[in-house]
Design goal:
By secondary structure, the protein is α/β, with parallel strands linked by helices. It is built from 14 helices and 13 strands.
Amino acid sequence: MALKCGIVGLPNVGKSTLFSALTSIQNVAANYEFATIDPNIGIVDVPDNRLGVLEEIVNPQKVIPTTIEFVDIAGLVKGASKGGGRGNGFLANIREVDAIVQVIRCFEDPNVVRSIGPVNPVSDKEVIEMELQLKDLDSVEKKIKRMERVAKSGDAKVKAEVAILQQYKSVLEQGKNANTLEVSEEEQKAVADLFLLTMKPILYVANVDEAHLHEDNDHVRALQAAVEAEGKQMLKICAALEAQIAEIEEPEERKLFLEEYGLEESGLSKMIRASYSLLDLITYFTAGEKEVRAWTITKGWKAPAAAGVIHTDFERGFIKAEVIKLADYQQYQSEHACREAGKVAIQGKDYVVEDGDIMHFRFNV
């Protein structure tokens, strides 16, 4: 599954520093391999300790993690929805991603230029959201005008669609995101072709200095309160420190560096996993002598659809899935031993795949 997260933020908030740290980890441990395919686009492995567990048991020729794509989108400025800064180019880039990671400055530093007054993370959050809402409002209003001309013919279906569009317009005019409107999946189709920016899930990243890695400052507390009020998620990361961590090539040395700062893992690892989770994704595994591999699916998928991410023939000719739970694999230490112990479950087309399942598909085409 080709999945994209756009990293956005106002100028000089540390957004590009985080992205640079991501691109710098390409030569560290396998779990953090990063391949740059464009100056501002990269594919990064999703850290998953379960792969290491399976590798130790199976001893495969190779291990292939699942991945997620990050896009470093140029800094947004107030007025972008009307063409300010990179304006429409910035917003078009956001339209292409599946989720948004908004980096917000939560540190004081006179050496880092800030052209819009004192550091104010809540205001920064609101600036970006307002620009996205204004762009969405423009898109909705244009579609309403087009649809109203058709509705004059008396088409009941078109009139109903215009009514739904008017609801979205009202929500956006109130300074709310489009995804806050409670409508049915069928009604959401009215705006599906607009790819509204404020329909996308969002993760907030508070960029702090080293002094506030473990103890929150007033900026972090204010942002956290605003984010929690909306039922959203926030992570705290020190982009400057992440850049240093990413430069350490030896895994053991990297581990010692993290320990010095009282960290069990890098903030980037947390951000990658949180972005993955933000998209409502889970992972299942295939394990054999040739390879141990992680596969990405959407939570709630049934076995045939999960098989289809390996090959469409697997879904088309699906017969059954053999499923082993990771805990059983760890306990019995081989697929054969799991079979002997009756720990291989035979599942049909209605089986909902669970995160961490180890699967083998039977199919016929």
